[in-house]
## 1
Amino acid sequence: MKQRIKNIVEIHDTPLSRIFAIFIQVLILVSIVTFTVETIPDLDPSTRLVLNVVEVFSVVVFTIEYVLRIYVADSKPKFIFSFFGIIDLLAILPFYLSFGVDLRSLRALRFLRLFRILKLVRYNRAMNHFTTAIKSAKEEILLFLFITLILIYFAAVGIYYFENAAQPEHFSSIFDSLWWAIVTLTTVGYGDVYPITVGGKVFTFFILLIGLGIVAIPTGIISSALTKSVDKNAE
């Protein structure tokens, strides 16, 4: 019995597993649509009733799926704390946590339902390549993120000392300067805060050059890992 359930709920090239996978994917998309429709103001009570019924049905199915995946898992703790295990839990958790909480908390919990869309990753071969690539390059990515945080702090400190005297309302502290550092290093540059001193402008020029590199480095890391993942699966 356990093996038969495992052959259905896990990805296998059998008719029942394909039907199950398609059913779950369609239900995920339907639940995302209902999540979006719920935000429309002044909905009819009948429409809200239909949306609630769809939500309850979705949660029941996702809960059964989650329990079955735990049941057939070779290592239950490993599945529960895996990426897909956490996503499956987050897909149903807001519904159960919404009981006995006030409306403000309920609104915050509903946002977690958006994680259901990540359940589609399990059924997408291209996305599986992407997650494999992320896992294989996680050390390089973590190192890059650590260096990026250092550069952001360095940029915030630098612009603070250049611009604090000239613009105390925008650069009153290093904490306030962090906003400028983030949008500049990511080359977004909203234009709400910008340097006006010569030193600040020169400093910004070099920070922008570094920001271009910051955008390019993770792209190269992930592209290389994706290529290796695709080549490995093609062998």
## 2
Amino acid sequence: MLRIAVPNKGSLSEPASAMLHEAGYRQRKDRKELVLVDAENEVEFFFLRPRDIAVYVGSGRLDIGITGRDLLLDSGSQAEEIMQLGFAGSTFRYATRPGTAKDVSEFGGMTVATSFAGLVTKHLADNGVDAAVVHLDGAVETAIQLGVAEVIADVVETGTTLRNAGLEIIGEPILESEAVVIRRTGDPSDDPKVQQFLRRMQGVLVARRYVMMDYDIRVEQVERAVALTPGLESPTVSPLHHEGWVAVRSMVPTKDAQRIMDELYDLGARAILTTGIHACRL
């Protein structure tokens, strides 16, 4: 069986399980379950702390896993990212009190507090900065107020929490993170079971981003219409019983669907419908 690590809690857990469910895999009903066997799909799921997943996959104990890019890089494990999943996005940045520093290059001799010591240590070294790094498990924004550090490195969404603590963001982002699929570094890329899993997950991503659009249009307007709905390869165009009309079917981005429907209507298209896509293979 393919052995897959899945986050058991936190912001990664529910979206990961929802995506796996959409991909046709069984998921646990009781949050206390640590192992779930999906015999029909020949997969065994292990529900682990998100921070530990890269360690298990990197050691070869598990075949692949779902975790955050930040957690993968912070772990230092022999594991690599093989697919982006498009959820749990975050930005990892430095912050300090106004006037302390303007850029990471000025952190020399200072102390940086963070929950991602491995990631920050490497980033400072890559930038040639000699600074001490203190590991904290959470609420790192209080480290400066309590005198533990002059700088913090943390996940930033809106920046409101940092501003409320009297801090300002410094320099460029350390990392743009999101949920990713990982495997052990050096493992074969053509493993059939892994490839099947990736195809299923990719199918979910596409199904979430696209809808199927159907409409009827006069023959003389077909070229202008299909320019609006080119599809992934090419739209399907079929003649209608009523002479001079054709039916067109094409996949369009969900975010653009309403605008495209308006433009098609202006071209004379009628019976314009959109249908959700539940699964696909490209």
